[in-house]
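In this supplementary section we document a worked example of the pipeline. Step one takes a protein sequence of length 318 as its only input; no multiple sequence alignment statistics are reported here. Step two produces a three-dimensional model, which step three serialises into structure tokens for compact storage. The input and output of this example are shown verbatim.
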Amino acid sequence: MGGTMAVLQINATPDGPRLHASPGALAPALRQGLESTGPIVIMIHGYKFDPTNRQTCPHRHILSLSPKRDCVKAVSWPRGLGFSGQAANEGLAIGFGWSARGTIWGAYGRAAQAGRALAELIGMIARLAPDLPVHLLAHSLGARVALTALPHVTTAGVGRVILLSGADYGQTAREALQSPAGNNAEIINVTSRENDLFDFLLERLVTPPTHGDWTLAHGMPQAANTLTLQLDHRETLRVLRGAGFEIAPPGGRVCHWSSYIRQGVFPLYRALLRQPDNLPLVQLRAALPKGCDPRWSRIWPTGWTAPEGAMARPQTPL
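The serialised model returned by step three reads:
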């Protein structure tokens, strides 16, 4: 690695954010990492990872510059976002680990607890480097961590929040958007009909905060600072291709990880976070399709009827 810090590994603990696998204080390490000019991107994993377990540690997997290669899903998020430690102006990637193993109910609850630790971390960054933008990239239950952090952030320092196949409900997003930090941030909700089965299972296993609520794929609030991007929509892929983002079509009907393992997705996320002024939400909203495909449209062939209790959600405008 060069002379700059590319990735800082931090975990959520009951006592707040702490360095991963180190007894050292967080503030000095954070101060050193913030010496690099450029954006700060906090990367948040989803279900089944645990930074205290070597076999399931996200810092050895997707949050690593060099992930272990025994899994097709081991794609380096920091490298995909343009972090290498070779340039002084590339900014700082922060891998944010939290305890996401065990039952889905336990992990769902701990995600909100991790959100408070994330808010504390964002506050520390704001005090140390108030002029640097802070962005969030989160997958699955990591979206819940990101959204539940926003109401506890006391500054307006969060820039863009990219949620990948977010495993949470619209009500959580509505509460986040009502906070000062959430109202100031831009939230890009990346979804796909490949994730319909996982959304359906979450809605059946985890009681929604409000009766009849839907997961973020169809329940993301419509606001000036939100955008839902259906990554398996043919017209969406055509528009993105015209803008210079060649994203591979989906490879199957069901996949929870498509939003970060598909070829070509990271150049889009990198541009959205590193050059936000070149891709304003109002411009994206005007160019992209005005709605999402209904649930199950990828899984069930035309003419089939979805199982009872799995009715399709009406189209949701972007």
